[in-house]
Amino acid sequence: MTTYHVSRHGRPLGVYSEDEAREYYAQGRIAPDDLLWREGMASGVPASQVFGSPAQASSPGEAPLPPPLVPDPAPAPSRTVRANQASVPLPPKLHWALVLAFTVVTLGLFYVVWMFVQAAWVKRIDPGSNATPLLTIYVVLTLIGQVMIEASDEGSGAAAVGLLLVLAGTVVSIFGFFSMRRSMLDYYDKTEPIGLRLSAALTFFLSVFYLQYHMTRIVRWRQTGILPL
Questions:
Q1: Residue 59 burial class via C-beta count within 10 angstroms: exposed 0-12, middle 13-18, buried 19 and up
Q2: 137-192, pLDDT tens digit by residue?
Q3: What radius of gyration do the chain's Cα atoms show?
Q4: Is pLDDT above 70 for 66?
Q5: pTM, rounded to two decimals
Q6: How far apart are CA 64 and CA 52, in angstroms?
Q7: How far, in Å, CA of 55 to CA of 205, rounded?
Q8: Domain ranges of the chain
Q9: Which of 176, 229, 224 is nearest to 43 (CA)?
Q10: What is the Cα–Cα distance from 86 to 151, expressed in whole angstroms?
């Protein structure tokens, strides 16, 4: 049996069989611009694209939607969650694979730029986030260390100090990424509880790319009401 997840302005309304969804659409309970999603769809689409022009011009909300159909307990590829009406702006939307590709092409420069883009968005969900200053310290220490290494003889004291600065900067960057992880977990477990889970190990090893993967998941949820697994 085909079932549709229905959402309006990012807020899930329920899960209904195709016959029920068509009936509620004809009655105006489901609006033409409400998003519908079923298994196999890449993202939600407006109801008007699924069911065509409504049979009558009833405005949405004249009658409340009936209780949602209890979904089949079989495993589903995604989860429906409720959005906060006062949601913050969307996270950066670039796919993690593109972030990786641009990082390689620009010899790491895009990586540095994008981590500040991510930190700026995290600041919107957590004004107390210290990710940006930590990442700034990382860049400064790394640049100074690299300059000292390049300008000094191999094995000299200055070169050793430069290497220590680079290592210190790397440690500081890890604190910065974990700061972003903590802010995302706090916000999406308390303010907009969607059950977000972020692996500490993957945050450590993949940093920007791993965080971007989950930011893209959040974008999909905000647009469709469905949180991809």
A1: exposed
A2: 999 999 999 999 999 998 899 999 999 999 999 999 999 999 999 999 999 888 88
A3: 23
A4: no
A5: 0.65
A6: 21
A7: 54
A8: 3-76, 96-222
A9: 224
A10: 52
